[in-house]
Amino acid sequence: MSFYTSLNGLKNSQTELGVIAHNIANVETNGFKKGNTQFADIVAGSAQSDPRMIKGIGATVEGITQNFGLGPIEQTGGALDIAITGDGFFAMRSADSGNTVYTRNGAFGVDEAGFITDGGPNRLQVFPTDADGNITGTTPMDAQIAPTNAAGAEYVGVVVGADGVVSASYADGSTEAVGNVALASFITPTGLKQIGSSNWEATGISGQANYGAPGTGQYGSLMSGSIERSNVDIAEELVGLITAQRNFQANAKAIDTATQISQTVINLRS
After folding, report:
1. Residues near 30 by Cβ (< 8 Å), separated by ≥ 6?
2. Is 3 helix (H, G, I), strand (E, B) or coil?
3. Flagellar basal body rod protein N-terminal domain location, by residue (predicted)?
4. Cα–Cα distance between 230 and 73 in angstroms, integer?
5. Which pLDDT does position 270 carry in this prediction?
6. Taking the domains of the chain in order of start, what are their residue ranges?
7. What are phi and psi of 62, to 5 degrees?
8. pLDDT recorded at residue 262
9. At residue 45, what are phi and psi to the nearest 5 degrees?
10. 136: closest CA among 168, 101, 182, 87?
């Protein structure tokens, strides 16, 4: 029995080492959220067992949870570099599949068609607004900047306010609201599915997305010209790495000890 108990311990430590290694590898990934390995003990006993004689049979990985704590905010000066200073996710709709993904990485740009994207097929979702930036609908849509305004003046730049209003500037000095950034929230954000590139998908555990404007209710305001960095604390991860390594070594030693005891018993009987 001790062999299997220690073997489970080895596997658990290996899982924790993998999670920590993944965290460390993404210390420079914008919008990344670190993972934490959660363990639970395993106990087996029947209804007839004396509760004073029940012993544990090891541990198991109960889950790998994500920590959605706010990461450091780095000022970049980019007009379409946007950080969320509180709760919420940017909603991005794929032009290829039509699926919506969610991210905290606000490094955006404008493609050749005027859509605000993450550099790939995903387009930033905004609430429709009137010319003054007042929200006129609650269904998010793709953020698209017109190359010219009604007077024929060419597009020259874009700004994003703390309240989420995206405003395009034109050569004649006029500005025009493109939309208001739609932030998403979830009942259980730890239930979101990681799909890479600092993106998540909604699942049955996370629940469906609820949308709101920045700076309202539970949603954080936006900070233009800034990017949210990874929330990985490298010093904390290195300490965890040492602890996981010691746990791995201890379980390996337990297997070695159990082997020696078994060998001694076999020698006594021979």
Report:
1. 105, 106, 107, 198, 227, 228, 229, 230
2. helix
3. 3-33
4. 9
5. 55
6. 2-69+232-269, 73-228
7. -80, -30
8. 78
9. -170, 145
10. 182
Sequence letter at residue 260 = Q
Cα–Cα distance for residue pair 68/34, rounded to 1 Å: 8
CA Rg value for the chain: 26
Q: Of 5, 19, 14, which Cα lies nearest the Cα of 194?
A: 19
Amino acid occupying residue 177: A
- Tens of pLDDT along 193-229? 999 999 999 999 999 999 999 999 999 999 999 999 9
Measure the CA–CA gap between 265 and 257, rounded to whole angstroms: 13
Query: Could you tell me where the DSSP H helices lie in the chain?
Result: 2-25, 234-269
Block residue for tokens 């067992």: 49
User: And the tokens for 30?
Assistant: 């914008």
Question: Could you tell me the CA-to-CA distances from 149 to 66, 101, 167 in Å, in that order?
Answer: 44, 30, 12
Q: What is the largest CA-CA distance in the chain?
A: 100
Each residue's pLDDT tens digit, 222-247: 999 999 999 999 999 999 999 999 99
Distance of CA 205 to the CA centre of its chain: 15
Question: What are residue 77's phi and psi, to 5 degrees?
Answer: 90, -10
- CA–CA distance, 244 with 205 (Å, rounded to integer): 29
Question: Got the DSSP string for 12-79?
Answer: HHHHHHHHHHHHHHTTT-TT---EEEEEEEEE---TTS-TTT--EEEEEEEEEEE--PPPPEEE---T
Predicted model pTM: 0.90
